Prior knowledge:
Radius of gyration: 23 Å
Low-confidence stretches: none
Strand content: 15-25%
Oligomer: single chain
Largest sheet: 7 strands, mixed
Structural class: alpha/beta
Mean pLDDT: 91
Number of strands: 11
Amino acid sequence: xxxxxxxxxxxxxxxGSLKLTLASGETHMIGDGSGETVAVRLADxxxxxxxARDPTLKLGEMYMEGRFILEQGDIYEFLSLVKQNTTNEIxxxxxxALLIGRIAWQQIKSRxxxxxxxxxxxxxxxxxxxxxxxxxxxxxxxxxxxxxxxGISLDEAQVAKKRHxxxxxxxxxxxxxxxxxxxxGGMGLYLAEANPGLDFTGITLSEEQLKVSRDxxxxxxLSDRVRFELQDYRYLTGKxxxxxVSVGMFEHVGIGDYGKFFKKVSELLDDNxxxxxxxxxxPKPSFATNAFIEKYIFPGGYIPSVGETTPPLEKAGLLxxxxxxxxxxxxxxxRHWRNRFVARKAEAVALYDxxxxxxxxxxxxGSEMGFRWDELFIMQIQISKNQFAVxxxxxxxxxxxxxxxxxxxxxxxxxxxxx
Length: 419
């Protein structure tokens, strides 16, 4: 009987060179023979059939389980070969039904009144801190870096990201600043040290991140004006803030809650305030998250398009003052992360196991592939309530970045993150 997987792969791979060894031992060379050969082997018939039925989910699962085996090249090179030959075609009615079912289910879940935010965050961010120490920069920035100028190191690019966002925030000393999704505290510490007297509040749903952030603030003598709280943004009340920043958190809000998110931002932002929203985005709506990412990495997450983001923002009475698209910076960031992670494979396996290592390798490779070949990008949206809250030109960004570089030259070195 003809292999269903072989039939699909033949349709996909037209350019490049793929050596496919089926579970039966039968080997096929597929493609036009150009480029470096990627060689894969299926360990058993069940794995081969599973991938043929549901490649979006089962390819990653079979790779995790060691049943989809790379004999030449790595998982990124395989995914890149596939992506350069296809644009997410659906090959039969069963795949179409799976996709429609996943879209429907994720849309329903995103609008459910049950708040699963803390569970979803804990699934990923409450993993061992030692895991993140394997691949992040010295400040533990777990979001897209800013490689300007090109070719700088990951550490330099993460500082450049904080500098760029801070410049757009137009922060002044003594202001009240809120960060929604404060990570391990690096953005808040940068803002506070760059602006004397600044009063900073960072909120997170990760207990592990909270511990690290508070420890870092204490060690740098900032606990009197830098506070980190275990807090869901939806229930935050009280004082208004002059500035609000959110970096890499909006992807976890869920498409059903965009209206609630921006309504809360409008409630918390001062009438003369400014917000900068930094998020992964896509060129058009997808309606659902990749099945592997949803199940294993970021449950409840969704990558929006710019067009899905701005209507609820405007409905909340907020103004879009500036939009910047950063198209390839996350691909560069993920390449650094994946190379660092793979280089420390033995430590990752010792923390968890081989299956976990392959799961994260697949996640990092697939994410990088998405930015290189699926046209994902970073959007930075500057938001205010009135048209006079920001200058009428963008010259201030470079001017403020120049001053921030002077601050960085005198800033005390970062201590190693405690875990």
